[in-house]
Hints:
Structural class: alpha/beta
Amino acid sequence: xxxxxxxxxxxxxxxxxxxxxxxxxxxxxxxxxxxxxxxxxxxxxxxxxxxxxxxxxxxxxxxxxxxxxxxxxxxxxxxxxxxxxxxxxxxxxxxxxxxxxxxxxxxxxxxxxxxxxxxxxxxxxxxxxxxxxxxxxxxxxxxxxxxxxxxxxxxxxxxxxxxxxxxxxxxxxxxxxxxxxxxxxxxxxxxxxxxxxxxxxxxxxxxxxxxxxxxxxxxxxxxxxxxxxxxxxxxxxxx
Length: 239
């Protein structure tokens, strides 16, 4: 069943812009077809009454809970190529609420403005990913930030993936063992060249826990996806 984000008004589902275009011109939906529409975190089973003009009838509310029981923010360094696309897509599937792309000392990519075409693409990927996995909310993607701005963000559990900790005693699992429902969790993952010692010390100054993601050094995009998946799995186990 296809999933869309829209507005529910008086027993009808309203789709606008790209959502309506995708339904009519990409999926070429037919009269009588059933779809799922999410509005403000609540999902509804709907049926297409008419194609022209588009009319969608709400049949019933779907009783489901697909979001994580925590609020997970994933901060990732700007990477070359399309590696950040993968982070946003898979992070969306894993339940990440907010993505923060940032710049650090060893970033190869150096955007010239806080927002560029890549940021716009990440936001589009988040929408499409949320539709594909039937999320109840679309993750937000911020503009580029400097690392220190990220480190100064508020969160109840703050994790800094540092490759020098690989195989060490502070694993991401042990750091999340006391995680509770409703808590805010911030995971920060570095660029291709990793974080510098100075950046790791700065993270400690901001009360981050330096964590290992295992005994092997992971590529930056793999580290972000792996870290988010571990946190998501642990949160659902707690829930």
